[in-house]
Specification:
globular, nine-stranded mixed β-sheet, alpha/beta, Rossmann fold, 12 helices, disordered N terminus
Length: about 350
């Protein structure tokens, strides 16, 4: 399996900041990418395809992987990962990284500072973060548990250079053949299940490589709009947007509402002692509780920043024109500022344990 350890030094960090002509010359399957932005920046940009990934044509040698993982692809002014281009149709640029870190801060507010709910041991030795993103969760876990070796995996090498000595990051497609070692005490996935093509298969891989008695935890928003008091209009723009995301995610072979099935996935993979926690995430600052208003501000801001990401790839793929997209997004932003609509999203935390006798 092709993968590269990220050597944390300044020269490679500078390589991560912009594409080079060598990266733009990398061969890719025509079904996955019909055009690639040229060095120097022209109007021609890469186009995502939701066709199945062709592993042999995309990565035929370790050297090609090594020369490309530090590069990026561009579409409609947004930057995306280069490794396994098109696998994850969400940007990895500064805007998205800031949004991820803001969501992490929101989760700490919502959970009263808890990084997870699974009852893991007090001195775990090995912790794995699948789809680590900016690496902020892995870094904080490394600080919290100095006894542990913490590994974060992601398609994009966007993690910080300066990290705790017991934390490291690697570029990898978590749905490829498992090459992450075994004997893990805790495997964590946040905001990952809705973009996995086969969650059960990945969880079965995790099961095989977790210590007996070890834990896995899934942390995901269910991608739906909830309301407890009947104040949600049937034509509320955000409700329409989340329904559209079902179709958009399906085109990439994934399920935007997959968070609600986390327990089922864990059971199918063999885990026991399933635990489930939920947290409400208000769309805006309508709650009376001060903490919930802050969480709502975070969540509304994150949702507003997520809209252009969908407008860059998914909505055009569904036939929307730029003018239609802008008008619709304006309505979505206005909707989340209406204090009379008490709508919220739901974050799900699913934990499962590998049996001690396994």
């Amino acid at each position: 399996m092709e993968r590269e350890t990220l050597d944390r030094n300044v020269s490679e960090a500078s390589d991560m900041m912009a594409p080079t002509s060598d990266a733009m010359d990398m061969e890719m399957d025509s079904e996955d990418v019909t055009a690639v932005i040229e060095a120097g920046g022209t109007d021609e940009e890469g186009e995502f395809s939701y066709s199945d990934y062709d592993e042999e044509s995309m990565a035929d040698s370790a050297s090609s992987i090594g020369s490309s993982i530090y590069q990026h692809s561009f579409h409609n002014g947004r930057r995306y990962h280069r490794f396994r281009y098109g696998r994850y149709p969400i940007p990895n640029d500064d805007i998205e990284q800031n949004r991820e870190d803001m969501l992490h801060a929101m989760m700490l507010e919502a959970t009263n500072g808890q990084l997870f709910f699974a009852p893991i041991p007090h001195n775990p030795q090995r912790i794995l973060d699948l789809g680590t993103g900016t690496g902020i969760w892995a870094i904080e876990m490394a600080g919290k548990y100095p006894s542990a070796d913490v590994l974060g995996l992601d398609l994009s090498p966007i993690q910080p250079i300066w990290i705790p000595a017991n934390c490291r990051f690697m570029v990898d497609d978590v749905e490829d053949t498992w090459e992450n070692g075994g004997d893990w005490d805790f495997v964590h996935l946040r905001n990952m299940v809705p973009i996995l093509k086969d969650p059960v298969r990945l969880l079965k891989d995790a099961y095989e490589n977790i210590k007996p008695g070890g834990w896995v935890e899934l942390q995901d928003v269910d991608g739906m709009v909830h309301c407890d008091d009947g104040s949600l209009p049937p034509d509320w723009p955000i409700l329409r947007f989340t329904n559209m995301m079902v179709e958009a995610f399906a085109r990439f072979g994934t399920q935007s509402h997959a968070a609600v099935f986390g327990g089922q996935y864990l059971i199918e993979a063999g885990f026991v002692n399933i635990q489930h926690h939920t947290i409400k995430l208000p769309y805006g600052t309508w709650p009376r509780d001060r903490t919930m208003r802050l969480i709502g501000l975070y969540y509304r801001t994150a949702a507003e920043q997520f809209l252009p990401a969908m407008g860059a790839i998914q909505l055009p793929m569904m036939g929307w024109q730029p003018e239609e997209i802008e008008v619709f997004f304006a309505r979505c932003r206005d909707a989340m500022r209406d204090p009379n609509v008490h709508a919220y999203g739901m974050m799900h935390f699913w934990s499962g344990q590998k049996p001690l006798s396994a």
